[in-house]
TrEMBL record:
InterPro entries: Pept_HybD-like_dom_sf, Peptidase_A31. CDD domains: H2MP (cd00518). Belongs to the peptidase A31 family. GO terms for biological process: protein processing. This is Hydrogenase maturation protease. It comes from Desulfoplanes formicivorans. One of its GO terms (molecular function) is enzyme activator activity. Keywords: Aspartyl protease, Hydrolase, Protease.
Length: 168
């Protein structure tokens, strides 16, 4: 979604919500369920699904003004706990160091170093503490489903209250 304003500088537009997870594993699919639900609302927001936290994430967020990245986590919190983080939070919160969120954070930081003009000005990482990420299933546990509902509402409320023109 890059737009050229004639000066050769890339301008950013729109919002993307990226869900990360495994659609075959019970709670590991939480990020995917968030984006599926937001996509079904037919709002002015793009949705993307990823099955990895590698450099593919950059392909999904480059060119957007705002991005939400949603993933399940196992950090020892109460299942269903929702963490709303900025990229820098991943490197300063001891509970996150050593999780695959660090890999996600490192990839995003590299994106800001290499593609500063194309990375989102407003990027949030939303992690949902999972209860069961090992059982094969096409649905989340009840406690994680409630967290999915909460995250969908949180993202939609943010979009309604903070239009892109107000993003700093």
């Amino acid at each position: 979604m890059k737009m050229d304003d004639g000066s050769g500088a890339a301008q950013q537009a729109g919002t993307v919500v990226v869900g990360i997870g495994n659609p075959l594993l019970k709670d590991d699919r939480a990020g995917l369920e968030v984006v599926e639900r937001i996509g079904a609302l037919n709002r002015d927001v793009d949705v993307e699904i990823l099955y990895t936290v590698g450099f593919e994430i950059l392909d999904k967020v480059l060119g957007y003004e705002r991005a939400f990245i949603v993933d399940g986590c196992q950090l020892g919190n109460e299942p269903g706990t929702v963490l709303d983080l900025a990229v820098d939070d991943i490197f300063t919160d001891q509970a996150l160091i050593g999780s695959h969120a660090t890999t996600l954070g490192g990839t995003l930081k590299a994106g800001y170093e290499l593609f500063a003009q194309e990375m989102p000005r407003d990027l949030r990482i939303i992690l949902i503490e999972v209860e069961d990420a090992m059982t094969f299933a096409n649905h989340c546990t009840l406690v994680v489903q409630r967290a999915v509902d909460k995250v969908v509402n949180q993202i939609m409320q943010t979009l309604a209250e903070k239009p892109l023109s107000a993003v700093s």
